[in-house]
Amino acid sequence: MFVADLHNDLVQRAMIGEDVSKVTKHGHTDIARLIDSCIDLEILIVWVSMISKDKSPFAEANLMYDKIESLSLHNSAVSIPKSINEILENKKNNILSLPVSIEGGEAIENSIENLHYFIERGMLYFGPTWNHSLDWVSSGYDEVHNQKKIKHIGLSDFGKEVINTCNENGVIIDVSHIGEKSFWDIAAISTKPFIASHSSVYKLSPHFRNLKDDQISEIKKVGGLIG
Q1: What are the residues whose beta carbons fall under 8 Å from the beta carbon of 79, sequence distance 6 or more?
Q2: Which DSSP letter does residue 62 get?
Q3: Where are the alpha helices (DSSP H) in 128-206?
Q4: Would you say 49 and 104 are in contact if contact means Cβ atoms under 8 Å apart?
Q5: Which residues of 148-167 are buried (b: 16+ CB within 10 A; e: fewer)?
Q6: Is 50 helix (H, G, I), strand (E, B) or coil?
Q7: Cβ(109)–Cβ(93) under 8 Å?
Q8: Backbone angles phi, psi at 163, to 5 degrees
Q9: Terminal CA-to-CA distance of the chain, rounded, Å?
């Protein structure tokens, strides 16, 4: 059996000074408890969608990457894999895989070069939006509650370039949080399976974050998965 958790915001606690390498009294997880659990892979999230406007999202995302790397440097029981083979090797050696993913395209600051930079750092999946729409992709929240303020509903040409770049470089696209129009724009051009790392079912709970039946069927059709 291989057990994976697709989305964990643990690094945010580390960024404010909490020592998450040991058992803590906060949150649901820490590195010590993850090592002791049955989990083989725990995806840690870089998320900079709510930083202050005087800070660079790209720079802050790199600081979060650095923090995750520091967690693995001093602990032989964990590793940050950059390929499927490394994940499988970690499983054989009873090492917890802590791959890094990004939620929210603010981190690339409208730059394909910045996207390539994070790909080189080993980004496993990329979620184009959190709740905030960007110049090149609309979010689930804004498509439902804020349409008049969206600069571009769905994917722009640059947004399509982002998806294509991820496809070409083995980065999974995560459609949790993106808008319905953005979802179908991605489905129309993606050449690789895509995922919804943390979404539920719209018919069970009609919330803008959740997937409608045709979206669920589409993820199944392309060989993706829903967490």
Answers
A1: 72, 86, 90, 95, 96, 97, 98
A2: H
A3: 140-145, 157-168, 180-189
A4: yes
A5: eebebbbbbeebbebbebbb
A6: coil
A7: no
A8: -60, -45
A9: 17
- Displacement of CA 63 from its chain's centroid (Å): 16
Q: What is the pLDDT of residues 106-141, one digit of tens each?
A: 999 999 999 999 999 999 999 999 999 999 999 999
| β-bridge pairing 100-103 and 125-127 | parallel
H or E, element range at 115: helix 112-120
Which H/E stretch holds residue 213? Answer: helix 213-221
Q: What is the spatial distance between Cα 114 and Cα 135, in angstroms, rounded to a whole number?
A: 16
Q: Which two tokens stand for residue 116?
A: 């390539």
pLDDT tens digits, residue range 177-202? 999 999 999 999 999 999 999 999 99
Which stretches of the chain are assigned E, i.e. beta strand? 4-8, 41-46, 78-79, 96-97, 100-103, 125-127, 172-173, 195-196, 225-226
Q: Which two tokens stand for residue 220?
A: 């199944």
Residue in the block written with tokens 């057990």: 3
Name the amino acid, one letter, at 200: S
Token pair for 25: 């009294």
Q: Residue 87, Cβ neighbours under 10 Å: how many?
A: 19
**DSSP label at 82?**
S
Structure tokens at 118: 């994070």
**C-alpha triplet 124, 184, 190: angle, nearest 5°:** 45
Amino acid identity of residue 121, one-letter, is R
Q: pTM of this prediction?
A: 0.94
